C-alpha cells in the first residue's frame, strides 16, 4: 500500500541488503539517551528496550502503575532510577533485584499504600530512597531488610500512624543517617517504641505531624545533629518530654518553624541543645518573636538565625541586643519597611544578612554598622535610589544583591568602599544610564549583572575601573550605541551578554570589542543587526577576538531577510561554537567559515537557506554538532560530500525534505544522536532503507522516531512512518521459494504425465523439428544425385533387403542403391549421413515393418524424406510395407499417417503369392519423374489404412 513501482536497480538493492553491513542506528519509543542518561515520556509501563549501558534512568511524569519483577532485568549498570510522578500502586517482590548498581531510587508522588516483603531485594548498594507523597500505610518487617547501605530515607507525606511502623523500617537500616517522616499521621513520638539499639541517625524530620507528645527517655539518637519538629496541623500544644538534656546534646541545626507549643516548653527545647546548637530556624512563629530571639540568642554556640515569614514590619534596636554571636541572619519574606540605624549594632560579627522580599524603600543605614558583612541580599524590595553612603564601611562585602527593585538613579561613588566586592546583581531595575559608577571603583568585581534595565548607550571607558571583571550581563536593555573604547579596562573579561538589545550593524562595527583580548563568550542574539549583501566589511567587528570560543549573533525576530558578509568572522581563529539561529539568512557565502578552523558546534537553524553547498563545511572538518532545523532545506544530500566524519549530533527538525537516503547516513560515521522531529516524511519505498536503519538498535539514536508522521501519499497522511508496511517494497524470499517449489512440482507432474501419455507424439515432434532444420539446410542445393534410391530399413529387415530387394533392383534392373551398412561415411555423424544419403538419392524407399516403426533412426530417416517430399513438392518417397500395420499403431508418426491417407503405397505379397507384379511396380516407381503428380497411374493402388 502506497508503494511506488520498483526499478530493477532498486530490486537489486533490496536483494543485496543482506550481504551489506549497514551503518547502525536505533530509536527508543518515547525515550532519549544522552551521555549514558535515559529519559522517557508518555509511558504506561517500564519499557523493555532500554540499552544495558544506561547508568541513569528517568521515568518520571509518566503513567506507570505497576513495577514488574522483570522490568529492569538488563539494567545492572543503572545507578540512578527516577520514578516520581507516576501512578505506581504495586511493586512485585524482587522487582529491583537486577539493579545491583543502584544507589538512588526516587518513588516520590506515586500511589503506593503497602510495601511487602522482599520488595527491595538486591539493592544492597542503595544509599538514597525517596517515598515522598504516596499513600503508605503498611510496611512489613522484611520490606527494608536488603537496604544495608541506605543512608537517606524520605517517607514524608504518607499515612504512617505509629512509631511501630517506623520501627519496622529502622531496625533493618543499620547505616541510615537521614530520615524524614514529615506530614504523616504520627500522633506520638515515644522512644521506647523504636528499636532498643542506638540509631546512627544524623538528621530527623518529624514535622507536620499531629503529634501530641514528643518523649525521649533513652539515648537512642547519640549522633543526631539535625532535627525538625514543627507541627502546624495539630492545633493543640505539643508536650515536650526529653528526660535528659544530653539525649539531644549533639543537635547543631534545629527547625521549630510553626511549632504549636507553650513558650516555656520552647525554652525547654532550646535548653536541650544549649551547648551544641549553631543554626536555628523559626519560620511563621506564633509567639512573640522578640522574646523567642532573646531566648535563642542566649545560646552561646548559635551563629545562624533564620526568621522568615514572621510578619515583621520594623526592626528596632532591642530586637537583636543579645545576638552577639550571630554571623548569619535571614529576615526574608517579612513585611519590613523600617530598620532603625542601630538595629544591627549588637551583631558586629554578622557576615550574611538577608533582607530580600520585604518592603524597604532604601538601603537601610543600619547595614553600615556591620563591618564584617560579606553577603547582603536586598533583592525584591522597593528601593528606588542608591546614595553615596549606602554601603559605607562595608569593605569586606563580597556579594551584593539589589535585583528586582525600582532603582533608576545611582550615585557615582556609591560603591567606593566595596573594594572586595566580587558579585554585584543590579538586574531588573529601571537604570537608564551608568554615569561614572564603574570608572574608578570595584577593582575586584568578577560578575556584574545589569540585564533587564533601560540602558541605551555604552560610552567610552564606562567600565574602566573593573579590571578584574570576568562576566558582564547587559542583555534585555535598549542599547543601540556602543562607542569605540566602551570596554576599555576589561582586560580580563571572558563573557559578555548583549542579547535582546537594539544593537545594529553600525554599533557592531564601532570597534568597541577590539580591546576584549581575553573574551571567550559573546552573545549578540535578538538585536537589529542586518546586512543587505555579502560584501566584505572594511573593519570586521571581531578581528581582534582571537580568544573567543563561543559566538551567538543576530537571532532577529521577524525583521526581514538578511545576508552575512563573507569576512564577518575574520579573526576568530579559536572559535568552537557559533550560533546564527533565527537570523532570516537567505544565503551563506561559500568561504564564510574559512576563519574558524576549530569550529565544533554550528547552529544555523530558523533561516531561509533552501540549500547548502558541501563546500560550505570544508573549512570545519572538526565539527561535532550541527543544528539545521527550520532552515527550509529541501534535502540533506549536501552532507554526502561535506566531509563531516566527526559529526556526533545532528538536529534537523521542521524542514521540507521527505526522504533520508542511505548515502547521507553513511557519510556521518560518528553520528550518535539524530533529531529529525516534525519533518514531512514520504511513506513509500524511497524511505525503505531509512526505515530499516532506524530499527537496527546499535549506534545512532534517532530521537522520537516512533512519532514521525507521513505527509505523502495523501491516503497515508497523518499515519506513523514506522508503521508503514515496507514489505511491499522488498522481495519476499519465502513467497519466492513457495512459488518456485510449486512451479517445479507442477512442471514435474506435467512432464511425467506428458511422457506417460504422449511420449510418442513428443518423440515424433522432436524428430520433426530436426528434420525441418536439416531440410531447410539442403532443400535449396542444386540436384546432383549419386544414387537412384536410398533404402531406409530396420536391421531386423536386413535379410529381406539383402536377399530380395538388392538382387532385384541392383542385380537385375541396374539401379544404384544407398545402404547405410555399406555406403555411409565412417566417422561422420549418423544424422548427417542420413541427410546426405536422402538428398543425394533421387528416391527414398522406406521398408516399413513393426520393427521399423520402433526404431529411432528409421523415424528420423522417414521424417527427413517426408520433409523433402512436402517442402520440395517432389515425388521422392516410396513406401514398401512388409507387414499389415493398423493405422492406430502409426498415431505417433503423424506425418507418415498423413502420407498414407493421401498417397498410394506398395505391399510385399503374402507368402506364396506371386511377386512379379510387386517388382514391376517398384521398377516403375523408380522410373517416374520427380513431379509429385506424374505417373501415379502406373502404380497398383491400395486404399490407405
UniProtKB/TrEMBL annotation:
<feature type="signal peptide">
    <location>
        <begin position="1"/>
        <end position="25"/>
    </location>
</feature>
<dbReference type="Pfam" id="PF13516">
    <property type="entry name" value="LRR_6"/>
</dbReference>
<dbReference type="InterPro" id="IPR000483">
    <property type="entry name" value="Cys-rich_flank_reg_C"/>
</dbReference>
<protein>
    <submittedName>
        <fullName>Toll-like receptor 22</fullName>
    </submittedName>
</protein>
<feature type="domain" description="TIR">
    <location>
        <begin position="785"/>
        <end position="926"/>
    </location>
</feature>
<keyword id="KW-1133">Transmembrane helix</keyword>
<dbReference type="GO" id="GO:0045087">
    <property type="term" value="P:innate immune response"/>
</dbReference>
<keyword id="KW-0391">Immunity</keyword>
<keyword id="KW-0732">Signal</keyword>
<dbReference type="Pfam" id="PF01582">
    <property type="entry name" value="TIR"/>
</dbReference>
<dbReference type="InterPro" id="IPR003591">
    <property type="entry name" value="Leu-rich_rpt_typical-subtyp"/>
</dbReference>
<dbReference type="GO" id="GO:0005886">
    <property type="term" value="C:plasma membrane"/>
</dbReference>
<keyword id="KW-0433">Leucine-rich repeat</keyword>
<keyword id="KW-0325">Glycoprotein</keyword>
<dbReference type="Pfam" id="PF13855">
    <property type="entry name" value="LRR_8"/>
</dbReference>
<dbReference type="InterPro" id="IPR001611">
    <property type="entry name" value="Leu-rich_rpt"/>
</dbReference>
<keyword id="KW-0395">Inflammatory response</keyword>
<dbReference type="InterPro" id="IPR032675">
    <property type="entry name" value="LRR_dom_sf"/>
</dbReference>
<keyword id="KW-0472">Membrane</keyword>
<dbReference type="GO" id="GO:0007165">
    <property type="term" value="P:signal transduction"/>
</dbReference>
<dbReference type="GO" id="GO:0038023">
    <property type="term" value="F:signaling receptor activity"/>
</dbReference>
<keyword id="KW-0677">Repeat</keyword>
<keyword id="KW-0399">Innate immunity</keyword>
<keyword id="KW-0812">Transmembrane</keyword>
<keyword id="KW-1003">Cell membrane</keyword>
<dbReference type="InterPro" id="IPR035897">
    <property type="entry name" value="Toll_tir_struct_dom_sf"/>
</dbReference>
<keyword id="KW-0675">Receptor</keyword>
<dbReference type="GO" id="GO:0006954">
    <property type="term" value="P:inflammatory response"/>
</dbReference>
<comment type="similarity">
    <text>Belongs to the Toll-like receptor family.</text>
</comment>
<dbReference type="InterPro" id="IPR000157">
    <property type="entry name" value="TIR_dom"/>
</dbReference>
